[in-house]
C-alpha cells in the first residue's frame, strides 16, 4: 500500500530546497553578526543614547538633558578645536599616505627580481604592534639620549625637545602614521594597477604615448573605482587618528595635538563624563558618514558625467 507524505513535511522540504543558499549564508554569517552586535553594535548604540544624558561617574544617576551635551560641544573650544585638529591632521596623514602608497605601488608593479620580498617589506609596518613601534619612536625622540638628538649633537647642533614643540609633534605623528599606513595603501593601489587592461597600454604605445601620457590617460582613469574605495577608507581611518597621538605626544604640548577621539577617551575613562563622550562620538560619526556620502556621490557623479549617452535606436 502506497504511503502518503504529510503535507507539512512536503512544504518544509520545498522551502529548504528553494532557500538552500540563503540558509547556508545565514548559518555562516549569523554567528558573526551576533558577535558584532554584542561587541560593537549594542555598545555603539548605548554610547549614542548616552549623549542625551548627563552622567558623571559610573555610580551616579543619569540625568536626561536633551541636546545639552551637543550644544556644549560647539560652544566649548576644547571640543571643536579637537574636531578641527582631527580633520586637518587626518587629512594631512591621508593625503601623504595615499601619494606615498601610489608611488610605492608603481615601484612594486615594475618587473623586478624578488618583487614578492619587496612587497612583504612594505607591508610589515601595517601588521606590527602600534604600542611597540611608538615606543621605539619615543626612544628615537628622547630629548637627552635619543638617537636623533645624539646625531644632532655630533654635528654641533643643539638637541631639540620634540615634545615641547607643536610643529615637531605634528610632524612626527604624520611621519609615524604614514610609515604605518603606506604599506596597506600600496597593496590596494597595486591591485588597482594590475586590474587595468593591458591592451589599453598597448594601444597607447601604438599611438606614440610615453610613460607620463600612459600614466595620465590610461592608468589614472583606470584606477577611479579603486581610488574611490581607498580615499573613503583612508579618510575614515585618518579622522579617527588616536593611538599615535596617545603614545607619541599624549595630546601635548599643552593639548595642541589632542584630537577628537583622544578627547572622547579622556572624557569616558579619565573624567568619567560618559554623556559628553557619547555626544562627541555621535557628532564624529555623523561627520564621517556625511563626508563619505558626499565624496562618494561626487565621484560617481563625475563618472556619470564623463559617459556619452547613447541615442535611441543606436
From TrEMBL:
Pfam families xref list: BPD_transp_1
Membrane-spanning ranges: 21-53, 87-108, 120-140, 160-179, 222-242, 274-296
Annotated GO biological process: transmembrane transport
Annotated keywords: Cell membrane, Membrane, Transmembrane, Transmembrane helix, Transport
Membrane topology annotation: Multi-pass membrane protein
A GO cellular component annotation in the UniProt record: plasma membrane
Record family assignment: Belongs to the binding-protein-dependent transport system permease family.
Protein name per Swiss-Prot or TrEMBL: ABC transporter permease
Source species: Paenibacillus albilobatus
Taxonomic placement: Bacteria, Bacillati, Bacillota, Bacilli, Bacillales
Amino acid at each position: 500500500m502506497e504511503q502518503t507524505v504529510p503535507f507539512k513535511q512536503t512544504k518544509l522540504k520545498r522551502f529548504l530546497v528553494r532557500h538552500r543558499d540563503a540558509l547556508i549564508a545565514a548559518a555562516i554569517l549569523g554567528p558573526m553578526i551576533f558577535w558584532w552586535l554584542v561587541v560593537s553594535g549594542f555598545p555603539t548604540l548605548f554610547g549614542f543614547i548616552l549623549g542625551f544624558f548627563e552622567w558623571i561617574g559610573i555610580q551616579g544617576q543619569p540625568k536626561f538633558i536633551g541636546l545639552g551635551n551637543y550644544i556644549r560641544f560647539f560652544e566649548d573650544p576644547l571640543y571643536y578645536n579637537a574636531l578641527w585638529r582631527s580633520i586637518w591632521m587626518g587629512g594631512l596623514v591621508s593625503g601623504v599616505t595615499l601619494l606615498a602608497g601610489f608611488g610605492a605601488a608603481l615601484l612594486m608593479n615594475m618587473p623586478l627580481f624578488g618583487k614578492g620580498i619587496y612587497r612583504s617589506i612594505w607591508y610589515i609596518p601595517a601588521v606590527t604592534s602600534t604600542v611597540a613601534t611608538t615606543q621605539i619612536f619615543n626612544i628615537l625622540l628622547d630629548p637627552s639620549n635619543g638617537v636623533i638628538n645624539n646625531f644632532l649633537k655630533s654635528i654641533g647642533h643643539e638637541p631639540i625637545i620634540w615634545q615641547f614643540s607643536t610643529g615637531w609633534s605634528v610632524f612626527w605623528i604624520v611621519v609615524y602614521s604614514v610609515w604605518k599606513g603606506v604599506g596597506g595603501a600600496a597593496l590596494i593601489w597595486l591591485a588597482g594597477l594590475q586590474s587595468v587592461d593591458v591592451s589599453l597600454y598597448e594601444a597607447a604605445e601604438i599611438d606614440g604615448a610615453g610613460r607620463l601620457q600612459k600614466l595620465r590617460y590610461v592608468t589614472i582613469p583606470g584606477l577611479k573605482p579603486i581610488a574611490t574605495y581607498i580615499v573613503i577608507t583612508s579618510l575614515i581611518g585618518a579622522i579617527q587618528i588616536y593611538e599615535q597621538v596617545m603614545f607619541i605626544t599624549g595630546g601635548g604640548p599643552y593639548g595642541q595635538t589632542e584630537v577628537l577621539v583622544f578627547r572622547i577617551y579622556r572624557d569616558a575613562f579619565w573624567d568619567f563624563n560618559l554623556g559628553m563622550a557619547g555626544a562627541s562620538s555621535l557628532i564624529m560619526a555623523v561627520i564621517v558618514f556625511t563626508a563619505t556620502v558626499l565624496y562618494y556621490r561626487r565621484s560617481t557623479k563625475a563618472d556619470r558625467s564623463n559617459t556619452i549617452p547613447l541615442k535611441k535606436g543606436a
